[in-house]
Amino acid sequence: MMKFKTFAIAASCIGLLAACSTPKHVPAELKAFEPGITVSIVWNRSLPSPNSYLVPGVNEDSVFVAGNRELARYSAYNADREWGATLEERITGGVGTDGYITAVGLENGNLVVVDGQGSPDWTSKLTSELAGPPVVAGGLVVVRTKDMRITAFEASTGDVQWNYQRSQPALTVDVPVGMIARDNLLIVGQPNGHVVILDLPSGRPVFEFPVAQAKGITEVERLIDVVGTPALSYDLLCAAAYQGAVTCVDTTNGQLKWSHPVDAVAGPAIDDDNVYVVDAAGKVHAYYRESGEPRWENAELTYRQLTAPVVVPGAVAVGDFEGYLHFLSPRTGDLIGRTRLSGPIVVPGQHFSDGAIFQTQKGEVAYVATR
């Protein structure tokens, strides 16, 4: 689910961006297939309905989840509840954690940080609501707000350490975005079709590369916002842009590895062989990791409002608007597994052990494994 966002005019739409100016598309009907893997729901738990894009936080053997005003930590292996907290406002951004410190954003624009036992530690008023989950790393809690400001707080005190903000285009894609922290670097997609890499301790820009170049005449035609969360695997960093491309660079030297046109609606995923991305029509694409050449395309799930892909053992998985999880073969793109959860799945699964942790819009949290 996406919408246009502008500070000058009201130009919003609900649903896939491709549907904003065209008649509503009919979601593809699900067809029978020959299963190639075993898909099992290891455990599931119910939280209040999130009513927003809340991504589970997974750290080692714990999963941190939120719904409405509830925030909880569970064992990722057996769903034993380790702690829970009820906050004063509805949670609309999160969950970010390093396993000890956990951060979420509230509907009133507050950032709330809780300690290792789930007790509120500190709160800070933000300039607007969160645009995606916080990052907790390097002794910092880093947030990105919907005004495109990135702010780093000292994790133990809440003191502001640095701010980073670029000028915002008049029209942007209002979609949840994620950041990655690795090796004292913070990787952030931008609404101008670029990815910027910041020095985590200082917030200083150290590198930037374009994912796509704007085309067309109108502001809508020239939208090329980086969507979702960039993907990082060993020496490969990839990001995808709406109406743009999926682009990968070599992290050892900053050189472009490859770029391929695709109208992306979510961030990519990477495994040892492929890079995966979902386009605006609901087609799932796989590109060879090294060359960027197309490997396969699956068009059996068109207009089912697919999530970003997540790599699980033996498959790549996407969720849809009816709560189905679809598992595709990494080699051929064929459907090889399917299961269903309790409601629409609008955020990507988070990889864990033999599968991934998924959360639905009805509040179900489930560990789904493939064997």
Q: Separation of termini?
A: 31 Å
> Helicity range of the residues?
under 10%
Shape: globular
Mean of the pLDDT scores? 91
Query: Tally the helices: what do you get?
Result: 0
Major sheet: size, sense and barrel closure?
4 strands, antiparallel
Strand composition percent: over 45%
Spatial sequence of strands, sheet with the most strands: 2-34-33-32
Q: Measured on Cα atoms, how large is the radius of gyration?
A: 19 Å
* Strand tally: 34
Structural class: mainly beta
Residue runs with pLDDT of under 50 for 5 or more positions: 1-22
What brief labels describe this structure?
single chain, disordered N terminus, 4-stranded antiparallel beta sheet, mainly beta, 371 residues
List the helices and strands and how they pair.
Layout (H helix, E strand, L loop, with lengths): L2 E4 L32 E8 L10 E3 L2 E6 L2 E6 L5 E6 L4 E7 L4 E5 L3 E5 L5 E6 L9 E3 L2 E5 L4 E6 L5 E6 L5 E4 L4 E4 L2 E5 L4 E6 L5 E6 L15 E8 L2 E6 L2 E7 L5 E7 L6 E2 L3 E5 L5 E5 L5 E5 L11 E3 L2 E5 L4 E5 L6 E6 L9 E3 L2 E5 L4 E7 L1
Antiparallel strand pairs: 1-15, 2-34, 3-4, 4-5, 5-6, 7-8, 8-9, 9-10, 11-12, 12-13, 13-14, 16-17, 17-18, 18-19, 20-21, 21-22, 22-23, 24-25, 25-26, 26-27, 28-29, 29-30, 30-31, 32-33, 33-34
Could you describe the 3D structure shown?
0% of the residues lie in helices and 49% in strands. The protein has 371 residues and is an all-beta fold. A 4-stranded antiparallel beta sheet has the order 2-34-33-32, with no helix packed on it. Strands 3-4-5-6 form a 4-stranded antiparallel beta sheet, with no helix packed on it. The chain contains no helices and 34 strands. It is globular and about 50 Å long. The two termini are 31 Å apart. The chain has strands spanning 3-6, 39-46, 57-59, 62-67, 70-75, 81-86, 91-97, 102-106, 110-114, 120-125, 135-137, 140-144, 149-154, 160-165, 171-174, 179-182, 185-189, 194-199, 205-210, 226-233, 236-241, 244-250, 256-262, 269-270, 274-278, 284-288, 294-298, 310-312, 315-319, 324-328, 335-340, 350-352, 355-359, 364-370.
